[in-house]
Amino acid sequence: MEIQQWTAILVGASFLLYIVIALKSRANSTGEFYVAGGHVPPLANGMATAADWMSAASFISMAGLISFSGFDGSVYLMGWTGGYVLLALLLAPYLRKFGKFTVPDFIGERYYSQTARVVAVVCAIFVSFTYVAGQMRGVGLVFSRFLEVDITSGVMIGMAIVFMYAVLGGMKGITYTQVAQYCVLIFAFMVPAIFISIHVADWAIPQIGFGMDSPGQGTSLLQRLNGLHEELGFSSYTRGGGNTLNLIAITFALMAGTAGLPHVIIRFYTVPRVRDARTSAGWALLFIAILYTTAPAVAVFARTNLIDTVYTEGQFQSHESMPEWFKAWEGTGLIRHEDHNGDGLVQYVGAAAVDGEGQPIRNELTIDRDIMVLANPEIAGLPNWVIGLVAAGGLAAALSTAAGLLLVVSTSFSHDLLRKWLKPDLSDRQELMAARIAAGVAVCFAGYLGINPPGFVGEVVAFAFGLAAASFFPAIFMGIFTKRMNREGAIAGMVVGLVFTAGYIVYFRFLHPELDNPENWWWGISPKGIGSVGMCFNFMVAGIVRSLTADPPDEVVEMVEQIRIPEKP
Amino acid sequence: MAAESKGDQPDDQQNVSEDHRLYWRKNLQLIAILLFIWAFVSFGLGLAFADSLHGILAPLPGTPLGFWFAQQGSIFTFVILIWVYAWRMNKLDDEYFSNGDE
Prior knowledge:
- The structure holds two protein chains of two kinds.
- By secondary structure, chain A is an all-alpha fold.
- The model of chain A has no long low-confidence stretch (mean pLDDT 85).
- In chain A, helix 7 (114-146) packs antiparallel against helix 18 (457-470).
- Chain A has 22 helices and six strands.
- Chain A has a single domain, classed as Sodium/glucose cotransporter.
- Chain B is an all-alpha fold.
- Chain B has one domain (18-97).
- Helices cover 67% and strands 0% of the residues of chain B.
- Chain B starts with a helix and ends in a 5-residue tail after the last helix.
- Classes of the chains: A mainly alpha, B mainly alpha.
- Chains A and B meet through helix 2, helix 5, strand 1, helix 10 and helix 11 of A and helix 1, helix 2 and helix 3 of B.
C-alpha cells in the first residue's frame, strides 16, 4: 500500500477512537468539566499529563532540533523534564490539597485579591493561546504533507475533533482521550526509533544503541559523528559551544516555566488524593522520559544518516544520486540545494569548512530541522505503514496538547472571570454552559490562528515559558512555602517579574532584533533564559515589599497550614 | 460543585500541632536533599562540568560522561527523584496522619 493510504487508515482509526471516547465521557457538572470530578486514577493521569505536555514541538521538532544543535540541545531535554521535579516536590501535592479548579483560583484566594486573580487569568490565557497556535499549525502541516489536504482543511478537521471532546466532555473527555493519545504517540515515536536503532547500531533499545560502537567501523557512533563534524567544519556534536551561564539560565527558565504552566498544573487537580498527585507526577515523568531519552538517540541516528547520504567515503555525492525522500522533501521546499559552484555535488558543510588549499567552502544545502522526525523513517527505508504511524502520532501529540490548553482558556473565562468576578450569582448549570461556549469559541479562535499563523509563533513560545517562570512559579511557590507572604508582595513580585521578562524579550526579539547577540545581552543571558532572572527579581521584590506591608490575615495563614498537610484518610 | 468538598476539611483542628510542625520539617529536609541532587546532575554534571567530563567514556562505551548526563542521565535521575519523593512522603503521611489521630 502507498504511504498516503496507510496514513489515511491510521489517522482515521485514531480519530474514530477519540470520537468514541468523547461520546462516552460527557461532563454533567462543572466539577466534571473542570477537573474530571477529581476521580482520575494516578496512572491514567500520568499518561494524560504526558500527552498534555508533549506537544507537536516535542514529537516533531525536538529530535530535529537536537540533531542540528548537538550538546547545546540538551537544555530542552533537561528543561522540559526537570520542571516535573519542581512540580512534584514543590507544587502539585499542595495544589491538590487546596483542591479548587484553576491556577488563578489559588493565586486569587491565597493572596486574598481579585487583582492577583485577574493578573493570573490574563497570564494563563496569553500563555495558553500562544501555545495553541503552534499546535494547530502542527496539525495543518502533518495533514498537508502526508494526506495532501491543504493546510486550511487539515486545521478544520483537527478543530472538529478537538471541538467534539473538549466542548462535550471538558476535562473528563480530554483526560481519557489524552490517555489514548499518549498510547498512539509513544507507539508512533518508538517504533521507527527502534527500527532505526537496529538498522544503524544493531541494538533494539535506542538509548543504548546510540552510545555503542558503530557496527563495522571500529569506533563508537558518537566518535564517528564527531569525526564527520570535524571534517565538514561543524562544531563538535558532544561538546558545548555556548556560554555555560546562559545554558544554565535557559535550562532553569524552561524548568520553572514547565512547572508553572497552567495546563500542566491543572492536571494534578484531577486525582482523588494528595498522595495520588505525587505518584501521578512520577508516572507522568516516566512516560515523558520514554520519549525524551529516545529523542537524543534518534537525533544522533538522523544526523549520521543525513551526513552519510550526502558525504560518502570522504566524497560529496552528486545531486542526481540523492535518494527518493531527498527529492520528495525538496518538493515541499523544506530541503533546498543551491549549487553555488555548479559542480552538481551536494556540498553540506559547516562554518569552519576549508578545502585542500585552506579556502573556505560554501554550504549548498539547507534543511528544515522540523522534518527530521517525519523524514527519518523514509531516510532509514522503513515500511510505509511506519510513516503513516508517525503522522498519526504527530497529530495525537498536537491535538492532546491543544485540548489541554483550550480547557485552560475556557475555564479562565467561565470560572475565573465570570463566576468569581463579573457574575458571582451564576448557577452551576449556567457556568457549565458558559464553559462549553468559551471552549467552542476558543477552538475556533485557535483554528483561525492555525490557518493564519502570526509569523512569530516560535518567538512567542519563548515568551510563554519566560512568563510562566517569572510569574506563576514564584507566586505559587511562595504561596505554599512562606506563610507570611502577603498580597502586596506577591502582586509586586509578579508585576516586576512579568514586566522585566516581557520587556527584555520584546526589546531583543521584536524592537531590536539586530542587537540580539551575546555582546548586548545582560550577563550574556539570551531572551530564552531571561525568565530565570525575572524569577529572581520576582522573589527579591516580593520579599522586600512583604517586609514593608501588613501580614496576611489569619484565615489565609490557616489555609496555608491546611494545604501543607494531607487530607485525613 | 462536585470536586470542591474534597479539598475542604472543616473538621480539622485549628491550631498547628507539634506533629504538623515535625511533618513539615521532615518534608522540607527531604525536598532540600532531592533538589540538591536535581541541581547537581543537571546544572552540575550536565552543564557546568560537562566539558571537564568529556574525556571519560561512561556509562556506555561510546558516550562522553557530561554529554550522557545532559541528554540521558539527568532525565533518568529526575524520574527516580520524583518516585523517591512520592514513596517517602506517602510513608510519612501514613506515619503522621493515619487512623485520624493527629
